[in-house]
Task: structure prediction
Amino acid sequence: MSEQPEIVIVGAGFGGLFAAQALRNKPVDVVLIDRNNFHTFTPLLYQVATCALDPSEITKPVRSIFRKSRNIKFLLGEVTDVSLSENRITVQAAGSSHPIEYDYLILSGGSESNYFGNQQIEAFSFDLKSLGDAVDLRNHALRQFERAVWTEDPEEQESLLTFVVVGGGPTGIETAGALYELYNHVLDREFSGGELKARVVLVEMLDHLLRGYPSGLRQSARKQLEGLGVEVRLGTPVAEVEAGKVTLGDGTVIPTHTLVWSAGVRGTKLANLLGVDLTRANLVPVQPTLQLADFPNAYCVGDMCYLEDEHGDPYPQTIPPAQQQARLAAANIMAELNGQPLDTFRFHDRGSMATIGRSRAVAWIYKRIGMSGFLAWIAWLFLHLISLVGFRNRLNVFVNWIWNYLTYDRSVRLILEKSENKQQTE
Amino acid sequence: MSEQPEIVIVGAGFGGLFAAQALRNKPVDVVLIDRNNFHTFTPLLYQVATCALDPSEITKPVRSIFRKSRNIKFLLGEVTDVSLSENRITVQAAGSSHPIEYDYLILSGGSESNYFGNQQIEAFSFDLKSLGDAVDLRNHALRQFERAVWTEDPEEQESLLTFVVVGGGPTGIETAGALYELYNHVLDREFSGGELKARVVLVEMLDHLLRGYPSGLRQSARKQLEGLGVEVRLGTPVAEVEAGKVTLGDGTVIPTHTLVWSAGVRGTKLANLLGVDLTRANLVPVQPTLQLADFPNAYCVGDMCYLEDEHGDPYPQTIPPAQQQARLAAANIMAELNGQPLDTFRFHDRGSMATIGRSRAVAWIYKRIGMSGFLAWIAWLFLHLISLVGFRNRLNVFVNWIWNYLTYDRSVRLILEKSENKQQTE
Result:
């Protein structure tokens, strides 16, 4: 066996993936660990949830990404313990616990939905954080339409076809827009000849959408959503959730069987394993070099780390900071191995964008140029297509998007029931 | 409401689908009922199970197939009762029971795996009868490789990577071939640089493969399978199955965690609801007109019906008889409504084919011309491509096949874990 330094990366999301790619063919041995055998292109999860794309089109097996990288080894498993002082993690896999020692550690565990302690919301709502979430929402949403066909009670029918999306960020906006289009432009033709209409309500606690965007683009996003048919409720939180209805802070009661939650994230349970002080949102504070304060051989990047910019604001929990932090963590480890000084993190912000259904979007490029409408949508399309990992995915996604656009169809409309668990010979 | 005769079709497999298509735009009202909201192109289930195709590529939403057919209504639900004497079925859907009356009934419930009463086999084996089965097998098979990476025990590793397929018909042959190729031509490069090798054993009780094929093609199929690397065990049944091993009738013990069962089918539970005498394999005997003996307004077609040809042999439980029977049942109902005489079933057999991995196949065309090897494979490819329902599916399948063929890759390698069930607001 080689005597190269061993670098363990936890998580094959954007942070872990980019860190591993930055260490490809370097004189180190990399072990990349994830609970799933695939990397997920999370910005398009809402398209899986709304029947536009297949799960395999927004994912890529991790092993196939690193097929030709001899110094990168993938392991499927769940990290159940981290001992920073002993340079060791423990992985639960194949029915038992496996300790793995490291010289350097890169933690990139991502985030999970933050319900701010409200167990009611947690129990009743759908998330869009993982591929499984997206498939669950797809199954559920399609089932609501099929259920509505069987009832003659107009009130029950209305509540089955009402979808409440909470959170005015890009995920909330994109999901609300795509849900509205799925029902009112695709499915309605197939259900009772257009008699059934769906209602999509987007709820945001702040008095505007898209925090971090300039006021003109926020208003444009709202106008585009409302122009599509989505009801936008600003300045009110969700107060209560129970079977069959959602009550807003202003007292409005919305009869519904579907609540999609995209109103905030927190660090995952991985953060709790570290034994270090975390922020209120369960994030891991890091030095500007991305090292943990007391453990300089442990780095943390992406959604799960907490670092403030020069104005004292935390970096956004989006993909670009995760990618850039991952590259810096890898570079800093290589610098230390080569006896060079470490660098500190500076975020190169190329801006952000959100799509709002067919032909509508807003984009805030380099935080200088605002774009909205069709042009922003074309920019969104182009950017996401080139960012998708793997040539085959890109080609298939392109074929599907063209098809969906031209035909107003959504092909991936499967209600995949869970099969009973087989006993298995294991 | 119209006063047209009401025809209820149970099952949207090949039988039900073709019956409904034959009744499209006829002066009748059709209600088509299925437990799933999609039709499945079952001959390619094994390609979903072996990571070559996506679930949505071999399925099509039933509602989208009949989007433009105003006289055909789809309902998602499970038939829980059939009263042939009262012309009424009962459907469980959306949480309650719904009675539906009919003037004519077409039963097309298909078949399920026949374990011949062996509960051990039923508990431990994987089927390939539904889309859910295929996804389960895909998840399980990929997981075996990931588990093998974690163990250092060579015996355990070997048993994890041994796959036993039971049944020498087309499904068994195709699955065994595709499994072997997935592991030994795709995955092995990504696992420890090719150190892990998988073993695929095909077990058949008879002393030959492919019942119904001439002897030359049977031997060719066996040679092609063995040339690929699959072990073929003829003339021996599976005697016993328990956790971690399969014992054959000849005493051979195969350590394995995967048993795929494609050794026979029986009529589904729908047949038991009818209150008529069934065959030993749970099939519904029908008249040559496809009517039930005592209930001339009830027809039964496809895998679940029992009818003998002029030699006293039952028709094969494959797609072509199901399609042709479905068309005859629809035609006979229209004939009766128009006061014309009913026709009896005659099967136009265009032959059959089975593929054996990359570039290998056998074909028995019109039961006269035998073909094997590359030419048969091209014929198989062409036939399946043109049979796939829906233009988009065809294009995507074509792209994927070309991609898989050129790159030796299989893109759909997702282990999709079942997520915990959300409580839901319903």
Chain A touches chain B through 79 residues (CB under 8 Å). Residues 307 and 314 of chain A are 6 Å apart (CA to CA). DSSP finds twelve helices and 25 strands in chain A.
